[in-house]
Amino acid sequence: MRKALISLLGTSMLASGALTSGCASTAKGVTKSTFVAGPDISLTQSAPRGTALAVVRYPAFIEDDAEADFAVAYAGMAIGGGNGASDPVATQALADSVILKSNFFAMSLYRELASRLPEHSVLLSPHRITKASDGSLTSEPMTQAESIASVVTVDFTAYSYPDLERMMGGKPLTFGDLFTPIITVRTDPRAAVGSEGVLMASAPIIGAAAGGNYSQAITDATTLQSGRIEAGVPELDILSHLSGTPRLMPATQGLRDRSRGAVKSYPIEKIQLNGAKLATLGEDDTDILETPFTDGFANQIIMLINTTDATKAAMLRRADVIADYDDNLAALTLVGSDDPDYLTRFRYAERLLEAEQKYLSVQSLRLYDGVINGEMGGQVRDMLKEEYRVLERRRQLARQQNIATAAAFAAALGGVAIATQDNNGRGSSLGQQIAAQAMIQGAIFAATEAMRKNKLSKGVGTNYLQSVVPALEAQTEIQVDLIDSSETITAIRFEDLKTKLSELYSDNQRALDTVATRCVYKGPVEAGTWLGACENGVANGSGVGIFRNRAGDLVEHYGYARAGVADGPGYRIVRAPNGSYSIEGNFSGGMANGVAQVERSGSVALRRYTGGRDMGAAPAGSIIASPFAAPYTVGDRTG
Amino acid sequence: MKQFLMTAAALLLPTAALADIEVRTLTPASLTAEQSETCVTMMSGFPDDSPESRYVFFRLSQELAKDVTPELSQLMTDFMIDNETRRLPADWPMLDVIEDIADPVLRQAAPTQTVASMAHIAYFNALCGPFVQGQVDSLFAFNPALADTDIMIREDALYLRQILAEALDRLGASDTMAAQAYALSLVIERDDIEYIGFEDEIGELETLYMGDLDTKLSRSNDAVNEGMNVESFQDAVALANDMNDQAREQAQKERLYSLVRILGGIG
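ok -> structure tokens follow
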């Protein structure tokens, strides 16, 4: 009976030890990012004047009324699997720390890009997380950095899994020396139609990023249809992910693949920074993210810039800004013209965009300076050092817990072995019974020790985050003060500058023979809208047409028209519900005619068209007519 | 005597040679000794009272000859022959040549004289371009600030070039392709000059606004950072440490209690 009791006790101890403690992880990360830092890749792309090459966007602040919803969404849509709901205070603290660290680490990326790309070509765009009019979570830019065109934008979030209890596991984390970036690199949805403008993204948010871009593209096209040129600013992709924006899944590829029309998928990685460097982090220290992450990531971004069609990426937003100064010119700039009056006027307009770009870049430089070089940066560095100490303590406790767990297993196994060594049914000797009991008691002690270490380990992190909440809030407020103050000062003077630029522009302009207006584009089903050169109330010349095709999809046609329909080189984008596609080539009578380049999700191919019908593949190397290649005169069939 | 010979040699150059010279790529080394001497003589008539005035005249002569194509040279030569207008002597002072072009009476009364004057400048540049460029480069190296006057020189040159275009028009050449191309080049030049003016004004605005913004943002950063409570984070860390210590003590007590229960017997 006694043997059975000991045996039962030993077995239950084993099970209890295994189930409650197990072997604790020591929270490690990879020392090298997938973005292997190599020789610097040179920029080979030149952006149109007044166009930034990259804008770094990041979550900088949560509005009070969005805070609770954000925490719920953050826990409910945890990246790394499962529902991350845990202690609400800790979750809130982690949510705040994601914002604060995104603010801080985004500066590292900005610094790297700004040092490698031409002056004024990299801008910072902090975003405010807020509630949209329909109550859903969204984000909006806090500065005017995104009012000018850019070849790519980079969404950057320093992510932490919302459940602190699982901090020591394999969950993605930005805490102490661990860093998990969630990123998206995208271009304008008109420049990479097959992937909805998404060029590269962290795997879990590809669908949300593509869905968000698609939705923005539809909004922009609808606005064009109403006669206004406006390129909207999409929310941060992490917000599209959290708010459940309808997903759209374009084709994906690996980081080293080079096919067009697909999104490069970046796996979630937890990068372990140099601990020794982190422990002594100071103002003059080299950037701790540079070697393990930003150096290689910047190379990827530059590669993506080099392979992106900058003209298509910038055309709508540039036209949007030009419309502020010259409504008659704006739509003509989409594909351009060789009319001398147009060229003269356009040169002046481009110079205004350049002035805006330079001005806004000063703001970005000062935001960087305010965050990194002031008290704010010092506090975040102190926080990272403290987090590293906390994490190291937890790792130490986890190692001790593992030792105690192993001891509990060994002792329990020993006790069970002694108690059951007589398998002939005879009773154990007194000595054996005492030894077995001692082993079992040892197992209980070791298991208790393991559980204590486990509890202490979790406590160390929880206590730290709970107590640091007010400090986090204080730091976030300072961050917001920096951005708000910067934006207030910038905006007041920016408006003033724009007025002065506008006056200067008006004083120097000559008349245009052809002005951009709004008229009818003869769609196949119903009348659409044409913004550009018109004659007798219908499209005639260069511009953009918006209409619905027979399937009911919204179509944007950039190029030339004659007598109300597409004629000459054109770039047509069809926003189909299951994914957009584009056709670039020659058009006549409103339909594709000749060799065209067709981009769909996952493929870019040369096809032959006759009267709008796809007649099959075109020979490789066929030359396509592009409205962006050279100015075309309507009616000139050689164009 | 030598001076006379050189002038005579220049005068003896066939008038059609201007068009021929224009299309050749000349370097000082490719000139004959005679041509070189002609250039030296012509340049000796340039102002020499200061580097500034020399720079202005060399640059002005360059600008005045701009966009004179072989076709336009031929056109000017034809007008000179038709109107029996002789080429100006090679040693004719450049100052006088320019004053003649700008002279309102001559402009009205003798458009062929304007053509001859401009042809003289074009001829000089076609023949002596490398020497002129050498002089401009040397003066610029001596004082780069001399280039600050470039835009004014271009404006003056444009004014004088427009006089040539008017003269050609009055002589009935406006429908020739050469004259039309020249008129278009004047429009482009005018656009460029105006754009440079616009660029300068925008540059001033940029300097003013960007400098002002930078200063204000820098001050604002300092003010915001100074307002930061630098102790709040240290307080938070101290609190976390206290909580950890308490947790450790509590865990210690719980462990002792468990041990007592285990070792003292259950129940």
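Chain A touches chain B through 58 residues (CB under 8 Å).
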